[in-house]
Amino acid sequence: MTIRLYDTSARQIRDFAPLTPGCVSIYLCGPTVQAAPHIGHIRSGLNFDIMRRWFEYRGYDVTFIRNVTDIDDKIITKAAEQNRPWWSIGYENERVFNDGYAALGCPPPTYEPRATGHVTEMVEMMRGLIERGHAYEADGSIYFDVRSYPGYLSLSNQDIDDLRQPDEGVSGKRDPRDFAMWKAAKPGEPYWETPWGRGRPGWHLECSVMAHKYLGSAFDIHGGGLDLIFPHHENEIAQAKAYGDEFARYWVHNAWVTMSGEKMSKSLGNSVLVSEMVKAWRPIVLRYYLGTPHYRSMIEYSEDALREAESAFARIEGFVQRVVEKAGPVEPSAEVPPAFAEAMDDDFGVPQALAVVHTTVRQGNSALAADDKEAAVARLAEVRAMLGVLGLDPLDAHWAGESDRGEDLHGVVDSLVRLVLDQREAARGRKDWATADAIRDQLGQAGLTIEDSPQGPRWSLGPR
Length: 464
Prior knowledge:
Helix content: 40-55%
Oligomer: single chain
Number of strands: 16
Radius of gyration: 26 Å
Strand content: 15-25%
């Protein structure tokens, strides 16, 4: 058994060989908490949750770090606009992010450090880089000298002579390509005391420091969105390696959620907030929608795509419910089917793995139709094992609250639907097929799916 993953730095799929046998160390660039998350933000955490689950299924002990950037230019700007403390904005949005992760079934990381809790370590790294000739002070800010590190831009495969760093709102650079590790405080801004005066962290320094603190000088996987390859990850690598760290051995990047072909972004005004989405759609359906495409594939957001996801998951969930009704509780298999494992081992190929899930569901439905209870139970055990890896098992305790919500309303609706279904059965009994079909069609237009079974008609919520 060998897990293979696409390494951005190598630009190819590589066999995964952990630094420490039996262990996997992962650092994921987490949120900058200047605003509430949209579904594009949460996709990254969800993709890496599935990776973490698969590593654990394969027997690895996983240490998973996801940081919180709780101080940056955008947070400071919003604090001034809203006349609020900068830390209150960060903390409020951090909680909303965590609510979003939890709603979609992502358990907390092993550690979730905040940038502002690691200023001491940042000062230590800057001092070391200045002493080694890789960084310098100018007007109270600290800059990294990119030409001092020969490997700079190897991750994004750019030419340094063509490079322009994003505008960071700071001055004093020796070279316009240099980037700020630490920013001198402006009047009214938050600050920390350092040997070079009052200032605050630069974005790139935060992650180099926190990865070093929690995972050491070398670790297995560094992850994040494609948009972080440059400048963020390039700058992290330069700082860490110039400091003396080996740093990450594999670089894994997830693709975006797009709208009309553009990356979902609050600054573009095309974002869809998680807090609103979970009101309109079941969280388990959102997880299916965001988690089942390959992590390196773009997801083009649309209501139609969400409805397709809802319908596909309903087919899985319907099978699960039917077997449980017939046979009672069924525990997951100890192992997933070989084809599922093969797909997941191959760069976490969730679409191919999901095809195995749907094939197994079809086999289980055929067993139910043939009244082969033993085969149906066996297929459900396999389905639950696979869904558990994907975080999509509807019988898992995490999702139990979904079925509890609206339980009283479900009973009322069931009573009303039963009255209509009794009328349909009466029509079928007198061979009035036109009336029976019309009742079924009307229920379908109301969002209900009617299934005729040996035990009588049953209904479920169909696609929206």
